[in-house]
Write a structure and sequence with these properties.
This protein has 3 helices and 10 strands. It has helices at 48-55, 100-105, 179-192, and strands at 6-13, 15-21, 24-33, 35-36, 41-43, 59-62, 77-85, 90-97, 111-124, 130-145.
């Protein structure tokens, strides 16, 4: 028996922010976290950097079939950015939603799941379950899930929706500006007569 068989997998994780910019909808969240999922896949801290790199440009699909398997019809978007968060042991992402129907539908409570290929080694956990230690993970796609879909990670849900047509950010801090900060800037420009 091969000690490192190829394993097809999917991992469910949390989507944190949705925003709309210049008519485009983006979602942000956690792509994958260090540790063991409910479906018995154990992801190491060391593998997270390669996961982050392999996810960039991965297609985004929506939904699952009656057996809870990912549905891969036409892509509804793609991953445009990933970053590794050492402190929290996770890979975060930003994805562009290109499907107008999905962009209008997605809301708080939607989940996320990833699919791809990895080398894996079986082990028995403390509860006697056969689990897989995941190595050399390559993400092939990301799945956006309805809130009604059972996920391996129950906390893997959209937690915030931002419905704005334009996002302002500070070039000095690279942080998004709040509505109050934007209003203050507009007010100051009006007083100066510049707008």
């Amino acid at each position: 028996m091969n000690p490192n068989p190829i394993l097809r997998f999917q991992f469910n994780s949390r989507v944190k922010t949705i925003e709309e910019s210049k008519g485009q909808t983006f979602i942000e969240g956690c792509l994958i976290s260090e540790g063991k999922s409910e479906n018995g896949n154990d992801y190491s801290f060391e593998s997270l950097r390669t996961i982050a790199k392999s996810a960039i440009s991965a297609p985004l699909y929506f939904g699952v079939d009656s057996r809870n398997r990912h549905v891969k019809g036409e892509p509804i978007g793609r991953i445009v950015k990933t970053w590794f968060n050492k402190r929290f042991g996770r890979v975060n992402f930003r994805a562009l939603i290109s499907s107008k129907k999905i962009a209008e539908t997605v809301k708080e409570g939607f989940g996320l799941s990833i699919g791809g290929t990895a080398n894996a080694k079986n082990f028995i956990d403390n509860f006697g379950r056969i689990c897989q230690k995941i190595f050399s993970l390559t993400i092939e796609h990301v799945q956006l899930l309805s809130p009604l879909v059972h996920r391996g990670v129950q906390s893997a849900v959209v937690s915030k929706v931002i419905n704005e047509t334009m996002i302002f950010s500070s070039s000095a801090t690279r942080k998004f500006l709040s509505k109050d900060e934007i209003s203050a800037i507009i007010f100051a420009l009006e007083i100066k007569g510049e707008i």
